[in-house]
Write a structure and sequence with these properties.
Structural class: alpha+beta
Distance between the termini: 5 Å
Shape: rod-shaped
Helix content: 25-40%
Number of helices: 9
């Protein structure tokens, strides 16, 4: 079970990186650190705990092969399991243990060293009450107490004319055996349920950044902050808990960021109730500059504007869109009332109401050899700026919905046999736009609910 949890968490973050890669992401080192939470519900069926207990408990539970020990009691006994040990959840953090056993006993009767021996076989059921605790040092401990037994048939030695009940002798041995079984259960749970190494492996699995995009040399760095685990609960036929991991994700372009320091010991976890946490990540949408230019052409090519209050018109005959680090520039060729070129640049910004990338802080420049055109450009300038502000925009609706669908499709599946994830995206917020000569990168902050389930078949 421990290896499965460890392998899954590594796989989960590789998947997250692959998802970003699938979007064609070129992430920026300027992207802020994002705090995320993932919740991993742990379900340990009592059937699996049953299997573990039965595996470490031998068929022969107890054996006394001497007639002369125990003050020459002239008594031998062997105790076997007749069926697998059965565990049933109790009312709190405990479970009830039922051990069906078969007992063979042989008793000698006589005096002065002359004895007649007779044996018998019978069955009984022993009961235990075991309380388990998950300590914040990652070790599961148990305190098991004997809870009596029930005779299926009381043991009697039949010497023909004489029938000797040996219940007191057998009960004395049973009580000793129950104490031994209690110790065995506690020791095996402590040895088998020590999570310290597994927790340390999980923590250090985030040591090195992941190269998630070779084309843009994009790195994903994940730094765990703390782990919180909810108290163990017994519900019907399973033990339940939830692991909550708080982590920081960062994205870098270019040089590989410095690795996290390897830890030699795992810190204690916090124990407490875990509320559904938000899984936050920054994904991206890539818009080629040529596509943004095509949108501008569709909206403005061959469009006419009044140059002098309806007395003359200006027609846009060609459009070129370019970008630099901060601004997007539309260069439009004009004819009719003005022969020349108008250059309009602005800072791209996401408009929440329009769900479009629009231009703000627009700057205007007219290039023409006609001096009179330059003198009369004020009205035309205001009109074309208003038109650009109101009409030009790169729609983000489809890209946002595609991002939502891709995230949910990426995680709503069986990752591999026995490990499933479910995701629900609640909010997408484009909040940062990065420009380069070839494409526009829109960073989309995403809030989702992500839960992981480990199916019973792999525990």
């Amino acid at each position: 079970m421990h290896t499965t949890i460890y392998s899954f968490i590594r796989l989960f973050f590789i998947m997250m990186g692959n998802f970003v890669l699938a979007q064609g992401t070129a992430l920026s080192a300027l992207t802020p650190k994002v705090e995320s939470n993932i919740n991993i519900p742990i379900r340990l069926p009592l059937a699996d705990l049953n299997a573990m207990v039965n595996k470490v408990t031998p068929e022969l539970l107890y054996e006394d092969n001497s007639f002369s020990d125990n003050n020459n009691d002239q008594f031998k006994i062997k105790v076997w399991k007749t069926r697998p040990i059965r565990l049933v959840s109790g009312t709190q953090q405990n479970f009830l243990v039922e051990v069906p056993i078969k007992i063979w006993a042989e008793k000698g009767i006589g005096s002065l060293g002359v004895y007649t021996y007779q044996n018998t076989t019978f069955e009984t059921v022993m009961y235990f009450n075991s309380k388990i605790t998950l300590n914040n040092n990652w070790i599961l401990s148990a305190k098991t107490l004997a809870n009596g037994y029930k005779w299926v048939q009381k043991p009697v030695l039949d010497f023909g004319a004489v029938k000797i009940p040996i219940t007191p002798l057998v009960e004395k041995s049973l009580k000793k055996e129950q104490e031994k079984i209690c110790t065995t259960i506690d020791e095996q749970i402590a040895q088998s349920m020590n999570f310290q190494k597994n927790a340390l492996d999980i923590w250090n699995s985030f040591h090195a950044p992941y190269l998630i995009n070779q084309e843009y040399t994009t790195w994903l760095k994940i730094t765990p902050q703390k782990i919180k685990i909810s108290p163990l609960q017994f519900y019907k036929d399973e033990i339940q808990s939830t692991i909550g991991i708080t982590l920081i994700t960062e994205t870098f372009v270019g040089e590989k960021p410095q690795s996290n320091q390897l830890e030699k010991t795992i810190q204690n976890f916090e124990l407490g109730n875990i509320t559904p946490g938000k899984f936050n990540l920054t994904t991206t949408a890539i818009i080629p500059v040529k596509e943004a230019e095509a949108i501008a052409k569709k909206q403005f090519l061959n469009k006419e504007f009044d140059f002098r209050e309806g007395k003359s018109k200006v027609k846009i005959t060609d459009i070129l869109l370019q970008t630099n680090q901060e601004r997007m520039t539309i260069t439009a060729a004009l004819e009719n009332a003005i022969d020349g070129t108008v250059i309009i640049s602005g800072i791209p910004q996401y408009n929440t109401e329009k769900r479009k990338i629009v231009l703000t802080d627009i700057q205007f420049k007219l290039k023409t050899s006609n001096f009179l055109h330059k003198m009369g450009v004020a009205l035309f300038k205001r009109k074309i700026i208003n038109t650009i502000e109101e009409q030009y925009g790169i729609p983000m609706t489809d890209l946002e919905e595609a991002a939502r669908k891709n995230i949910e499709n990426s995680f709503n599946k069986e990752l591999y046999k026995g490990v499933s994830s479910r995701a629900k995206v609640y909010q997408l917020s484009p909040n940062l736009i990065q420009l380069n000569p070839e494409h526009i990168t829109v960073f989309i902050h995403t809030e989702a609910q992500l839960n992981i389930s480990l199916n019973k078949t792999i525990l």
